[in-house]
Each structure stands twice: as C-alpha cells, then as structure tokens.
Design a protein that fits this description.
This protein is an alpha+beta fold. The chain has four domains: about 15-170, Beta-Lactamase (2-Layer Sandwich); about 190-310, Beta-Lactamase (2-Layer Sandwich); about 310-475, 2-Layer Sandwich (Beta-Lactamase), CATH 3.30.450; about 485-705, Phosphatase 2c, domain 1 (4-Layer Sandwich), CATH 3.60.40.10. It is elongated, with a radius of gyration of 32 Å. It is an enzyme of class 3 (hydrolase). InterPro entries: Bact_Sigma-Reg, GAF, GAF-like_dom_sf, PAS, PAS-like_dom_sf, PAS_4, PPM-type-like_dom_sf, PPM-type_phosphatase-like_dom. One of its GO terms (molecular function) is protein serine/threonine phosphatase activity.
C-alpha cells in the first residue's frame, strides 16, 4: 500500500481487508500512525497484526501487549470502550510508565474491536500534538465505523483458524503526496547539492536514504558508508541518547526538532529535523557551540550529546517499566525476551534459576529445545560460565568462541552463535539465577554496553524473585482448592453428571465456589452448589466448612439442610456471606425438591427440549440471620431432562444485565441438544473461558437422569 487505499466497503477478509480498513481510517481521521491488535485465543495477549506510520523498531515494546497490562489498547479491550489521550500531561497522569519511555508530545486513541458482545482486538491511532484536546464527532464516527468493519473480519479469521497476527506485524508502506520521475529526482538532488551546509533524508526506520556531498563531508564519512545506515550506528560520535531521542521525538510528535553534537575533535554541528509520513528531512549546519540558538520555528532543542548506547538505554527504560507489571515466571520470561533481544541485538537468551542445588532453565527465546535440555539442571558445582556467574556474582563476556574456549577449555560449540554474555541475577544481595545472551556474530562488548547489560540483569532478578514467590503462592492456592473440591463425583445409578470449575482471572486463583453430589441411597441423591464471598484463602477455608456442613445434613429436607448450615455460619461469624442451592433428587419418582439461599436460579431443560429458568421461593444468604427460613419447591426431573446448577461467575460480566445473561445461558442449553453431559458442560463454560477479564470463579454442575431402571421407580 503506497499512497492509495482501497475502499474498505468492498468485500474481502483476511490481512488485506484489515490493512485496507486501517489505511482508510487513518486517512479520513488524519492520523499519522495506526495499528490493529488481535486478541490471542486464550484472551490474555494482544498481538500487533499491522502497523502504519512508524517503524517496527520504535514499536518493538508494544508488539505484544498483555491484556492485564496498563496501556491504552489493553484498557480499551478490557473495558469495552474508547480510550482517548489528548496530551502529554494526560498520558503521564493515566499511564506514567508509558510516558516515561515515550516523553514526546502526541495524541492517541485506542478502541475495542468486537462483535456480538465478544471482543476480538483493538484499534490504535496516533496524531501529532497539534491535534485538538478532544476527538471530533466526525473522527469518532470514522473510528466507530472502522471497528464495526474490523470486527467481522477478525471474528471470521478466528472461527476459521486463519492467522491475522504473525510473530511480526505487517508494515504498511507510507503514503506520499507525489511521486517523482527519474529526471525530477535528479533535479531534486542537484537542488539539494546547491544549498549551503548539508542535508540528508531518513526513512521512518531512521536509515539514511539520501545525503548531499556537503552533508557527508560535515559528518566525516563517505556517502556509500552512510547510505542505508542509521546515523547513530554508523558514526561513533553520534551514538548517544540525544540523537536517537530527537529522531524518536520527530517521528512520534510529527513536529520539527533539533539538537547539537560535537564531531571530534572540535566541530560542533546543529541538526534540524523535519518529519512527515515518508520520513525525516535533516539539515546539518556547522555552529560555533552547543549553545547556539536554533531558528525560532524549530521546537524542542536538545542539549549537546554525550556518548552512550541510545537504543539499549531506551529499551532498558521500557524493560524497567514493563517488568513492574510482570506476574508469574513465564510472564517475566516473555517480557524479557520481547525487550532484551531487540535492545542489545542478541539472537537468543536463556533464563536460569537455582533450584535444589541445580541450575534450571526456566525459559528461553531463540534456543533449540534439545540444546536447552542438554544444559538444564546443571549441578551448581559444575565448571560452566552460567554456574560461575551465579556463584560469584560477576558477569562474564565472551566476544568470540575462542574467548570462551580459553576461559573454559571443555566448552564445545553446539549452535551457530559466536558471542555470549553471562549475567548474574542478583536481588537483595543474593544470586537467584543467570541470564545468558547469545549473538550470531563476534561482539566487542564495550564498557557502556556491559554496564547496561548488568543493570538489566538486576531488574530481571527483582522481577524474577517476585514472580517465583507469586507462582509458589499460586501453587499453594491451587493445591488448597483441589483439596477442598471433590476429585470425582460419586456414581449414582440412573444419573449422568458433569462438573466444571474455572478460577478467576485475577487474584490468587482460589475462591469460594463449590459443588458436590451426595449419594443417599440407590434411588436418591443430593446435589449442592454455592459461592462463598471473596477470592482468598479465607473464602476457600469457609467453603470447605460449608461443604462439610451440607454433607452432615444431607438427607434431611432441603430447607432444613440450608437452615442448619446457616446457623453454623452465623455461629462462626466469619464475616463472609454464602449463596447456596441444595437439591434433593428423587430418581424413583422423577422429581427434585430444591431450596435456595440467595443463589442464581437453576435452569431445567425438559426431555422435549423445552427450557425454563426455575424460579424458587427466595431465601436469605447464609451467615446473616440465624433464624432465616428456607422454603422449598418441587420440580419434575424426568429421564432425558438436564438440570443446570451454576455460580454467578458463569453469567456475570461488566456491563451485562445478569437476568439477560441467565436467559442467554438458557438459550445455549436449549440449542445444545443431543450432547452428552460432559460435552454439554464444555459448551456452557466456553463463553466464560474466552472472557479475557473474568473477575469471579465459575462452578457448574449438570444433572441428567437417564432411562436406566432405578429400584423403586414408577
């Protein structure tokens, strides 16, 4: 796509259709950059599918955005609404970490892409800081229209298994106001050569695409050596934070800017940058000092440059910001891989942790699995560089395999890598692991790069220590939950049952939802389901006590079972309330007697397919009033019927009326005829599994009498 945008109203699907809609939207709103994110199948990651207006290099930190992260696009997708950032001050207030790594003025909008209540991804657009403080009604309408058109495309791709977002985003070619022919291009070059001082052009990725003879002389390098290179990478004296920062400022703000730098030994140069969608025009002017005043129309002048690794420092700053949001160990591994490899030009990394006297590989990027298996679980007494940096706390850098071989004679080259950095992961003065970076070419590892790499390892160590504690807590919570819920349900003649439990997406993943099936005799059973308030160990502990109390009273009339359990809870004074539903199943008489304590109503599908929401006499939540009464109701439960008991996590969602959600659940039950109860249970929880921001547990219990003769049946 170069300057022309096809009409998105034309029929189409897949990547071309997405690109067309994005280009059309950007053109109509005047946005200089945009992107479309696709939500991963597990609903936990947003992957950038297509990008326009800025380079992949600048967008690297945001190619993959975890849905729980604090960012405009993840917030828009989670909350189901548009997020508008109209100024740098607003960005700093709402997203301080993003403002830290992008200290440049621009405006931004993020909007969810959804159909039929299901979110499939997000749309992001950028404008220059000259944009008004608010979106216009016309811009909002264009954005809404683009999201409506993208929704069916993303949904169809997900339904068909077509991949819209690969490992790397598609980059749309910039549009140009006009194209020049060969003669005109030569005339333009002649024109530039006649200008005083020097000038050059950068593409959106920062590479030099044109420069004059005067510019090359001022920069002190030949034209062939500079074409296709980034100035701060080709010229050692420009390899500094300020030069690349001004380039990023020009690209992201779309405003002119300038900076000064000293070319050794004593030549000061002033660089003036003029950006647009196709790249940046740069004027290079000799100046007397770093304090020379730029022309009045130039904005954001920068101070004199100092040596450094601009790209590495930029990514280090973003790594520090993004690691604060990492939760588990795998989350840390993913974020480290996303940030460290592009920041330092490495091709592979391995993250290792000390466990029980061995160095375990807990994550890797760019390494083969067989190679990782060979190095996994090395004893902490072994003579390897990864163990050495862990035990000594001193980083090691090997610019070539010869260097590595000289330090560790037994070393054998087992991959195509040519240089390595072994970094200790130290937190609170103690080593917790090692980070290995591998490069496919020999590398000098200058002092400033070693310093930045070591600092990065310190950030990673802190995040890894927190993540391992989190994972240990999660495992404890899961073990507790598994011990409190029934491992299997009892076999009851004449009854098919199925149960499902899904923990919440947030918190400790342990909560108070429970279910149980109790066999009373050959022709009778009891079923119960409930939800203790909260999502913590206290809620889970109380849930175990409620299950025990129900078991102890099982066989009594349902109202009496709930009344006894209620008195126990009020005596415990736990400060947590519990909803509960108890059903006495009479398989001989094909009926069920039910009582509820503030629990969502059950749903019954009759053998003929007719489905109804069973309205029960109301009962107070357990644990409030010890004298509460729980009336009962009897319903038919014929062979072939299905009784659905569930907790509110299955039907509650932000912005959704719970009664509408219960009716929708009943509709899914009615349409899922001829499914075994196990398959039916999976069908009913599918929506909850794909909910990205599920804030509550989900418990589901299905009960279906079948036509096997039951003793005593009539």
């Amino acid at each position: 796509m170069s300057g022309t945008v096809t009409d998105p109203r034309s029929h189409g699907s897949g990547p071309d259709a997405v690109d067309s809609v994005l280009g059309h939207c950007a053109r109509r709103t005047g946005a200089y950059a945009g992107g479309v994110y696709v939500l991963s199948p597990d609903g936990q990651m947003l992957q950038l599918a297509v990008l326009s207006g800025i380079s992949r290099r600048i967008a690297t930190p945001w190619v993959r955005v975890p849905l729980p992260a604090a960012s405009p696009v993840s917030d828009a997708v989670r909350q189901g609404g548009l997020v508008w950032i109209g100024s740098q001050d607003e960005l700093a207030r709402r997203y301080p970490q993003l403002a830290l790594v992008l200290p440049h003025p621009f405006a931004l909008v993020a909007a969810p892409i959804s159909t039929g209540g299901r979110t499939w991804g997000g749309l992001v657009l950028h404008w220059s800081s000259a944009h008004p403080a608010t979106l216009s009604a016309q811009e909002r309408a264009v954005i809404d229209d683009a999201c409506r058109r993208l929704g069916p495309i993303l949904r169809q791709a997900a339904d068909s298994g077509r991949v819209l977002a690969g490992p790397e985003p598609r980059i749309l070619s910039p549009s140009r106001n006009r194209a020049a022919g060969p003669a005109e291009a030569q005339a333009a070059a002649d024109f530039a050569e006649r200008l005083p001082s020097g000038c050059c052009a950068l593409d959106p990725d920062g590479r030099i695409t044109f420069l004059t003879t005067a510019a090359a002389e001022l920069l002190g390098a030949g034209i062939p050596d500079l074409l296709g290179a980034r100035p701060w990478e080709a010229l050692a004296w420009l390899d500094n934070p300020v030069a690349e920062d001004r380039y990023r400022a020009a690209v992201l703000s779309r405003r002119p800017t300038s900076f000064t730098a000293r070319r050794p030994p004593d030549q000061w140069l002033s660089f003036h940058l003029y950006p647009d969608a196709s790249g940046i025009s740069v004027r290079i002017v000799p100046t007397s000092s770093a304090d020379a005043v730029p022309p009045p129309h130039l904005l954001h002048p920068a101070p004199a440059a100092e040596p450094g690794r601009a790209t590495a420092l930029y990514h280090l700053m973003h790594l520090a910001a993004t690691l604060t949001e990492a939760v588990g160990v795998q989350d840390v591994v993913e974020r480290v891989g996303d940030q460290i490899l592009p920041a330092f030009g490495a091709q592979a990394l391995a993250l290792m942790a000390a466990e029980e006297g061995r160095l375990r590989i807990i994550g890797h990027h760019g390494c083969s699995a067989p190679l990782m298996r060979r190095f996994d679980a090395a004893p902490l007494t072994s003579d390897t560089p990864a163990v050495h940096v862990l035990t000594t706390g001193i980083p090691s850098f090997f610019g070539s395999f010869d260097d590595l071989k000289a330090a560790y004679p037994p070393a054998v080259l087992q991959d195509d890598m040519a240089a390595w950095a072994f970094l200790p992961l130290i937190t609170s003065g103690r080593p917790v692991g090692s980070l290995v970076l591998a490069y496919d070419r020999p590398r000098a590892f200058p002092a400033e790069e070693r310093s930045v790499l070591t600092s990065s390892a310190g950030l990673i160590a802190q995040a890894l220590d927190r993540a391992r504690l989190h994972d240990a807590t999660q495992q404890l919570a899961h073990d507790l939950q598994a011990g409190l819920l029934p491992r299997t349900l009892p076999r009851v003649p004449g009854l098919d049952v199925a149960a499902r439990y899904l923990p919440s997406s947030y918190g400790m993943d342990v909560g108070g939802d429970f279910y149980d099936l109790i066999r009373l005799d050959e022709a009778a059973a009891a079923a119960t389901i409930g939800d203790v308030q909260g999502h913590n160990v206290q809620a889970a502990t109380l849930m175990g006590q409620v299950r025990t109390a129900v078991h102890a009273s099982a066989g009594a009339p349902p109202g009496e079972v709930l009344a006894r359990t209620n008195r126990l809870l009020t005596d415990l004074d736990a400060g947590l309330f519990t909803s509960c539903l108890y059903a006495d199943l009479d398989l001989a008489r094909h009926s069920a007697c039910l009582a509820t304590a503030g629990h969502p109503p059950p749903i019954l599908r009759h053998p003929d397919g007719r489905t109804e929401i069973v309205e029960l006499p109301p009962g107070l939540l357990l644990g409030i009033d010890p004298a509460a009464d729980y009336p009962t109701a009897r319903i038919p439960l014929l062979p072939g019927a299905v009784l659905v008991l569930y907790t509110d996590g299955l039907v509650e969602a932000p912005g959704t009326d719970i009664e509408d959600a219960i009716r929708a659940l009943a509709g899914r039950l009615a349409h899922a005829r001829n499914q075994p109860v196990d398959a039916l249970a999976d069908t009913l929880v599918t929506g909850a599994q794909h909910t990205a921001a599920r804030s509550d547990d989900v418990a589901l219990l299905l009960i279906s009498p079948h036509r096997t003769r039951v003793p005593g049946a009539r």
